[in-house]
Write a structure and sequence with these properties.
InterPro entries: Metal_Hydrolase (IPR032466), Uronate_isomerase (IPR003766). It is a single chain. The chain has 20 helices and 9 strands. By secondary structure, it is mainly alpha-helical. Helix 17 links the parallel strand 8 and strand 9. The chain is globular and about 65 Å long. The model has no long low-confidence stretch (mean pLDDT 96).
Length: 477
């Protein structure tokens, strides 16, 4: 795993704590990367083709970057982001790169700048500072690296020290890329690249094309989704197919954390209304909430770890969604309630240690008040790392400071990079490891934790915990 140029990046400024943090970080830095949740396209590794130009690799697919420029009036089409209707966008990588470099000052103090600068230095060995005057030189240096065999996706995977990478697919996906990875010795159960079951497009009645998606689900699974019973059977069949392709977890990106424990008859009535196009927003929310309990029940049967990512208002920027589609930077977080929302699921299954529910948030106000006490009181519940709008060094620090008091370290699930930007994976994990080293060093300096226990803990956080929680070492332990 590459290391940063500056030995003390993100480590505490106080000399005594910094010395302790250096020792702890050195233990974490050498650990393999476990990446249990992300959105890298599996075709990247299945096909192992050379990357495109620097802009197509680093700017066009990264909505952290394109949304910032949109906020300053630069439309995504000027940065090469494809349009839904196929209307023209900028395709010249050098032009895109220059345009981005001209707005580089917008990223001062942001995690995006930190990640990108360290990607330049530690992945590509390029130390030229980015700016309007240096844009072409930096572009040429990175383009030259991308032409080398050592910068093909699988070679970088090896160099990054990734032990396991989980991608995320819909039940409608044929998993063909994962089949190719398995044939090459890279995928399948216990493989280096595995899939994750993400059923939102067949669960959320407000998802565009939901009814059609449900029909396709039935076709893919060989079940009749005209009935609720057939729908559940189709979901179970696709989960089994995902497990056969190496999946160890499911992922659920609902607008809220609400759960409902409905009777089969009540759930069937909701499902039928949705299939007839008669469901309203309340029906859609109730069905999503019920299906979280249903998926927990399925997890007890098939062993998939259940990840819940609530709290995003999807496609809030309607213009952006209409022009460019989903997942291009048009989403925003909202306040999210967990105590009452999760009660039906937790009352039913929360004390069953066979179930693992990894819970994330976009609302850091809930760290102390709701999430830590919940994870500290239910056997089935674990806390995922800060993600998306919260995956910055500052929030990672606040997460440790606020949740450790009630939940400890071992009711958390390790770091997730949650990224489409393949080349930023080692950088993001390294940032988390440095933050954890600083937090543990403070506990040691305050005589709250012996150094030997801090050393064991940082290796657990970086490697052993995520490997165990997501069952990458074998069966549920």
């Amino acid at each position: 795993m590459p290391t940063f140029d500056h030995t003390d990046l993100l480590l505490p400024p106080e000399p005594g704590q910094r010395a302790l943090a250096r020792e702890l970080y050195a233990l974490a830095a050498t650990q393999p990367i476990i990446s249990p949740h992300g959105h890298v396209d599996p075709a990247l590794l299945a096909e192992d083709r050379p990357f495109g130009d620097p802009a197509q690799l680093l700017i066009v697919p990264d909505h952290y970057l394109t949304r910032m420029l949109l906020s300053q009036g630069v439309p995504p089409s000027d940065l090469g982001v494809p349009t839904r209707d196929g209307s023209p966008v900028e395709t010249d990588g050098r032009v895109i790169w220059r345009r981005f470099a001209a707005h580089w000052h917008l990223f001062r103090g942001t995690p995006s700048r930190l990640w990108l600068e360290q990607t330049f230095r530690t992945v590509f060995g390029v130390h030229t500072p980015l700016g309007p005057a240096t844009a072409d030189a930096l572009y040429d240096e990175i383009a030259a690296r991308l032409a080398e065999p050592d910068f093909r996706p699988r070679a970088l995977f090896e160099r990054f020290g990734i032990e396991v990478l989980a991608t995320t697919e819909s039940p409608l996906d044929d998993l063909g890329q994962h089949a190719k990875l398995a044939a090459d010795g890279w995928g399948g159960p216990g493989g280096r690249v595995v899939t994750t079951f993400r059923p939102d497009d067949v669960v959320d009645m407000e998802f565009e094309g939901w009814s059609t998606n449900v029909e396709r689900l039935g076709e893919r699974a060989g079940e009749d989704t005209g009935t609720y019973a057939g729908y559940l059977a189709a979901l179970r069949a696709r989960r089994a197919a995902f497990i056969a392709a190496g999946a160890t977890s499911s992922d659920h990106g609902h607008p809220t954390a609400r759960t409902l424990d409905l009777t089969p008859a009540e759930a069937e009535r909701l499902y039928d209304r949705g299939r007839r196009g008669q469901a309203d927003a309340a029906d859609a929310e109730a069905f999503r909430a019920h299906m979280l309990v249903e998926f927990a029940r399925m997890s007890l049967d098939d062993g998939l770890v259940m990840q819940l990512h609530p709290g995003a208002v999807r496609n809030h920027n309607r213009w952006l969604h209409a022009r460019h589609g989903r997942d291009v930077g048009g989403d925003v977080p909202q306040a999210t309630e967990y105590v009452h929302a999760l009660a039906p699921l937790l009352q039913r299954y929360g004390n069953d240690s066979r179930l693992r529910v990894v819970l994330y948030t976009l609302d850091e106000d809930t760290f102390t008040r709701e999430l830590a006490p919940l994870a500290g009181g239910y056997a089935a519940l674990l806390l995922g790392a800060p993600w998306w709008f919260l995956d910055s060094p500052e929030v990672l620090r606040r997460f440790r400071e606020t949740v450790t008091e009630s939940a400890g370290f071992y009711n958390t699930a390790g770091f997730v990079d949650d990224t489409r930007a393949f080349c930023s994976i080692p950088v993001r994990h390294d940032v988390a490891r440095r933050v954890d080293a600083g937090f543990l060093a403070r506990l040691v300096a305050e005589h709250r934790l012996p150094m030997d226990e801090a050393a064991e803990t940082i290796v657990d956080l970086a490697y052993r915990l995520p490997k165990r929680v997501f069952n990458f070492g074998g069966t549920n332990q």
